[in-house]
Amino acid sequence: MKKQNPPRPLRLDLDPNNWDIFWADSGMTPEFLGSLGNTQRANHFLGMYNICRKSSLGVHLKRFQKEFPDHYNFFPQTWMYPAEFHDIQEYTKKKTDKRKEMIEDGKMTEAQSEKDPVVLYICKPESGSQGRGIFIATKVEEMRVQLNRTYERNRERLNEYVKIEQGIDTAMQHSNPKTQIQVDNIMQRRMERPENQYIVQKYIKKPALHQGHKYDFRIYVLITSVISPMTIFLYDDGLVRLASQKYDPSKSFDDPYVHLTNYSLNRNCKDFDSAKHKLRLRDVLQGELVSSSANGRTYRKKAEQIWHEIEEIVVKTLMVVQPQLQHLYRTSQAKEPDICCDLLGFDVMLDHKLKPWMLEVNHMPSFRADTGIDYEIKHDLIKNTLQILQLSIEQRKQLDMVIKGEQRLAMQYGNVRRMTVKEHCERVRFDHNLIDSYIPGNKFKRIFPVDPGCGGLATNGDELEDIYAKLEKTSNTIWKKQVGMIQKKEVNPNLHEKKKKRKNKKNLLTSMTSHIKKGDPEKDHN
Ligand SMILES: Nc1ncnc2c1ncn2[C@@H]1O[C@H](COP(=O)(O)OP(=O)(O)O)[C@@H](O)[C@H]1O
Ligand SMILES: [Mg+2]
Known about the structure:
Layout: E1 21-22, H1 30-34, E2 41-42, H2 49-52, H3 54-67, E3 78-81, H4 85-104, H5 110-115, E4 121-125, E5 135-137, H6 140-173, H7 177-188, E6 198-202, E7 209-210, E8 213-225, E9 231-242, H8 256-259, H9 263-266, H10 274-277, E10 278-280, H11 281-284, E11 288-292, E12 298-302, H12 303-319, H13 322-331, E13 342-350, E14 356-362, H14 372-388, H15 393-412, H16 421-438, E15 444-448, H17 464-483, H18 493-518, H19 521-525
Parallel strand pairs: 1-2
Antiparallel strand pairs: 3-6, 4-5, 4-6, 7-8, 8-9, 8-13, 9-10, 9-15, 11-12, 13-14
The structure holds adenosine-5'-diphosphate (ADP) and magnesium ion.
């Protein structure tokens, strides 16, 4: 019998430069990206907070909602508090007047109106997570009082937080056994940084229900390049997170176990059952979905169609920040066009008509595996991500050879330069072909760039490719205007006036000279 070799024990490699991917739950710095080797990867792009903070996501999407109302209608109307409180009041007044008219016209009775609040707002800390600090308000004045109270409370806590942090810093500076005890003591009091800003959002009061419970989807999106064309993949599976109590809006809006679907929150409910309240997305989003509204109407939609709408939502959201991300990446001195990647978690919920709404984008989606489904999905997700990033030894060797070849050529011709956009596009397409042919079982689908002619029709009937091209162009213009690369017309109205006067003067002179040259026909008769 052949003697079996004992398994090789794991070795700890102490070489600080010998690694393939840096995976951290924190942001990156430009210096760090600049220091990475050709084949090393980092799990975040610079500037992704632009869509991962609820406030900046709102600001960016609002700007696009104004330009393209038909395309950016997947994000609930959002306001910043307190900056846009006046707009919230105006919106509330409009809705209240409309309700009064309905009662006057006999379309609704007073009793019905009392049961159904005119407006419903959901207030969220701008960079919160896991449902913390969220509340629902039915009256705008009550909302204001509650928000101001929260601000006051948070201000005190924020001061305390700053003091604790400063205490740790000073104690750490004089490190000796005595101060170590001091550090330990302060560390025990360490707390989370309290939120200081809120956003107010229209509450979707008629959600689609699963066996009577409200739910939302956790969708996973992988970005491997932010240089145009951005490269975006959508994972073929995800999680469905259900509220642990049945949905009944006529009861109360205070119960988080009815209205919020965060797992980290609902698992504390006595009725929570992980087998019922956390499901595999592919098990729910398949075949045909049916939703019944309170007035007895039934809505149906094919899961395929919903997937398609989610794809569009993801691309359109990322399109909004692409120019910023590209700029930050280029100025970070990263050596290669695809050193970074980002695995984002999109929260999407369906309303009673089965229309998907995007609620937020998570920069660091949880990889905790508390349940069997969690483990299966997240384990596969990471495996498939690493496949796309091409981190196997063979792939690394191949990539290293290509890069070294490119560098040698550049040295030979004395022309060390950055890849042109066209060359980059070619390389991206080449990589995609590799992924499509060498990783056939991979569960990520590339959703941008769409292959020419394969994009299909968007929900409004236009060619997807054309729409994306238009959005990309507008996004560039908006960004350039923002950073002052294109002058806004209203920046200096005098300049515009001066130009106009100069042009008029020039026109006058030319018409006079041509008049002299040609002679006046009438005078000819004289
Ligand atoms: N506009 C909305 N309408 C209805 N429900 C919402 C809305 N926004 C958020 N929710 C519910 O609240 C939960 C938490 O909101 P989210 O924006 O994801 O904040 P967090 O970062 O705390 O998870 C969502 O999972 C969803 O169940
Ligand atoms: Mg969330």
